[in-house]
Each structure stands twice: as structure tokens, then as C-alpha cells.
What we know:
With 308 residues, this protein is mainly α.
Amino acid sequence: MKVFACPVCNAAVYFDNVACVQCGSLLAYDVEHDRFAAGAVLCLANATVEACNWSVPDSGYCRSCALDVQHEPTEKRAPFERAKRRAVRQLERFGVDLHRPPTLRFDLRDGSVEGPVTIGHQDGVIALDTAEADPARREEVRTGLGEPYRSPLGHVRHELGHWYWAAYVGDRFSEESFRGVFGDERADYAEAIERHYGTPDDGSWQSQYVSFYASMHPWEDFAESFAHLLHVTDTLETAAMAGMVGGAAVALGVGDFDLVYQRWIDVSVALNELNRSMGTPDAYPFAPSQPAINKLHFVWDALTSSAA
């Protein structure tokens, strides 16, 4: 994520800011022009614990909050709403039309109150369990499933990958080209789930996939690769703003993938070494193989095609 500028005093403004820390001006993020404005009308969710800082044309909910199935603000929803805003901004910059069918909606529910929530995507609706806003709960699930990484933003980006496949297959990429990279998505999904959870993780997936979960089914492979590519490009944009890498090579939808990925290797190594210096887990606990990198390249081509 880049650093923005206050429209009043030109001081640095960050993506989640609701006011300029230097001049005190109340600000609103304008996703259409990717900038902050002063005196703009704020999203209705700004007045809630979700503290949305996006602008709206006149009144109502912003482009991100308008995607929610229902608006019942809770503290547990806030991390998922922040993650959703970040992902929506990123896809907007890639030129993705979020209004394409199937109609995209987010159903945010609290599994600790409503009972078990099946996280996933179906017919455009993305269901997420806001109980995982609790770090302890999220860590319990992460370790139970043997995952190296789990976060609200990761959930949002992964499920958006499923929506993107449904919305753009046959348009920005063909089924034939997809199957040539990820495999045949017509394989029985229910059988794939049963097989996956009945098979221990022996690490063999690392030669072909970005994660163990990606090895379940071609759809999951694509969604995991999609989320991974969004992680990479967002972090690279942040690194570019910090002067760690050249900006032109990592701008959304711009640049040769091989060059972009080489920049990512440099940044990810630095990130991990910084974390190790603090005695904390690696920020990027992955080491993608070449086949997995080829899948990231496929997603990059699909997204930059959308941008074009």
C-alpha cells in the first residue's frame, strides 16, 4: 500500500487514517481516484465501530461496505472490513469490475455466537467467520490445520480469487489455458475435500503448489495463487513507497512479471531477516517452486489483462 498525501497540508496520510495527524483535517478516501479528500461525505459505516474512512457521492455506504449482505457493526467485523477495503482498493487499481456476475457480496458472521460458519464462496457470496478476529482463535485454527499463514486479509483475498475465477473465466482467460496450468476443475470437488482432509501433509505439495491447501483442487489452487499474488503486489507497492525497490517495476498492472517477482524475492528475504532480528516468525513463510511461480504468473496475466 502506498502512502497518500493530505489534500490540505500535504503531510503523509496512511490508508486507514480518518484525519491528518499534522493539520487535523478530517479526511475520506476516494477509491475512484485513489486519493484522500477533505470535506467529503463519509460512508455510513464511519459512525460505527468499523470506522470506515471511505467517501460516498452523497449518502449511504461506500463501494466496499455496499458489498455486505447485512450491516450489523461489531468489533469483530472491523478487522475484516479493513481487510476488505484493502482488497477492494487493490482490485479497483487492477481494473477489476466488481459488479460483474455472479453478484459479489460478503456475508460476515460470528461463528462464536451463531454457530459454525463455513468459510467459502458460492454464487458470488463470500462467507467469512469474524470469530477469527480474535488472534487466539485464529492461531488455534491455523495450528490445527497446519497452515503457515492465516489472517482476515488472507481469507478475503482467497475467497475473492474464487469470485474472480467465476466472473472472468472465458473472458480474461480460457478454461483450456487454466487447465493447462492448474489442472481440470471438473474434478469432483466433494471427493477432493474428503481426500485432502484424509491425507496427511507430507510436504510433497511443495514441488507444485504454493500451499498444502492449494493441492486439494484446481479451484483452490487458483484461489491460493490469486491471494498470494495480491499479497506480493501489495507488499511490493509498500516497499516501493519506502524506497526499497524501484516503483515502476512494481506498479499494479505494470511491468514484466519476472522482474516483479525478482524484486519480490529481494523484499521477502529482507522482511524475513527483519522479523528474525526481532525474534518473531517469518513475515513470508513460503518458498514457492517454479511450477507454483508459474501459477502466480498466470494470475498476474489475468489481472493485468483486466487492467488493460
